[in-house]
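Hi R.,

As promised, here are both runs. First protein below:
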Amino acid sequence: MTAPSDNVSLGSAVLPAYARADVTFVRGEGSWLWDADGRRYLDLVAGIAVVGLGHCHPAPLAAAQAQLERLWHVSNLYWTEPMAELAAKLSDRFGGAGAFFCNSGAEAVEAALKYARKATGRPGVVALDGSFHGRTTGALAATGQPGKRVAFEPLLPGVTFAAPNDEESLVGAARSDTGLILLEPVQGEGGVRPLEPEFLAAARQLADELGALLAFDEVQAGVGRTGSFFAFEQAGVAPDLVTLAKGLANGLPIGCLLVADSAPRGFEPGDHASTFGGNPVACAAACAVVDAVDEELLANVRAAGERLAAGLAGLPGVLEVRGCGLLLGAEFDRPVAPLVDACRAAGVLVLSAGENVLRLTPPLTVAPDEVELALQTLSGLLASA
């Protein structure tokens, strides 16, 4: 296949739904990417918290390749071994749960919205200001960022919003028809803002009092990203529902709704579906990922996160460093878009989470020398700005 001569012709047939940077990547290994011109970049984005084990990690690569040689798809009219194995592994990690598999985080959130409505008989949802749950209409309705919603309203009715870490606001947002409280333990797109354990515990208590379900959206924060397999483990608060996606298959499309064994029953055959949900290849890769997220890897996440956070805190213009593990945000006293561009020009990929927040979501396998290189690059660029 002959490659187009430039990125303009490369994307001429693609709808302009993204503001893409003018770079085309063709290869990845570990924490590194190479573009079409052969230039190497240190990747502290990891597909926005997706490539948790690094690019082309041998374990999910081997699992996906082996499955490709056996079976690609049979539909959910039948069982497949990788799907059943992945469900069992996630249930073990959770402490007893059933899984519904789909293809993305937004789909997992849509499944949670439907499950809660069916299980409780109530359509109301409480979510948080600044939250992000996806771009489909239901998930978008529960996203607490008006700028992302306005162009597509009216959306799903019955969603109310509370202020993060404000228990009084949370209680005030609840209604008699509330069937679901939907929270990100660490808000990602909303500026990398962790929710306090006391707030999560208050949400658990409120859900119990209302007879509602408590859902934690761990699409970005889950699968080891914060230093534990599930982010909620660090707060000691157990949800009824958890949504996963992004890092679960290290870059292959997958989403998952986990429903605690203790939660009220919701779905019955015919209530919900996903043609490609539980795809054998994606599930085989995800099984390898779950196995790889062991205590040794989680210890690296915590150690690398501490080094990275400490280095960020010492940079000029940084007002606050927030986050857990390798889901970190550095709030600056200025817009960060120029810094994101300058880093890319210097061979380091970073991203933002709001106008003034630099977000870093490197592979969970990131090495100490790679963390140091990132910090040196940021320091040099800020010093010369």
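And here is the second one, sequence first, then its structure tokens:
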Amino acid sequence: MPTEEYVIVGAGGHAKVVLDACQRAYPGARLEVRDDDPAKANATLLGVAIRTPIAAALGRRCHVAMGDNAARRRISEAVLQAGGALASVVHPAAQVSRHAAIEGGAFIAAAAVVAPQARIGRGAIVNHGAVVDHDCEVGAWSHIAPGAVLGGAASVGESCLIGSGAVLLPGVRVAAGATIGSGAVVTRDVAAGAVVTGVPGRVK
């Protein structure tokens, strides 16, 4: 990421994680935090001033640091419509293959692994300690929660949540909008919008 000013959008818990990653990975960057909560105006997040409103910064280089998939997508699309750009953030303690593809607005947290020829879609999150193995696809606006594991060539559609510690066996496909519960082991394909829990995973 260029050593220029850019904006972290959001000032909640996930934004703390993203901002910390930025401070470690891009020490030369000028950071700004934006949020629409008036109670947070003039406060700080990890030493960076929080400014309002979000709309005033949409035309700039932004990373939308919101854990909620729908909110992250909505604000990211507003950034693009305003002529801004979506910046990806990769923690320096993440292991990302030079043969992987990371699209704009994605976040890769500390201790995450993104293996060769994996693809991380726009605005997706690969959180702490998650593993996205070779040839996997993570769709736009999805969240791979801490400690989740995607076996080789597994596929996750848009706007999915793969819960903490969940495991997708190699080649399994999870369609758009599905939720995989924490600790679930997914052994077969999952339909769009389904909720899967348990070991082995079953649709609720």
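A quick note on the second one: The chain has two domains: 6-86, 90-198. Let me know what you think.

Best,
J.
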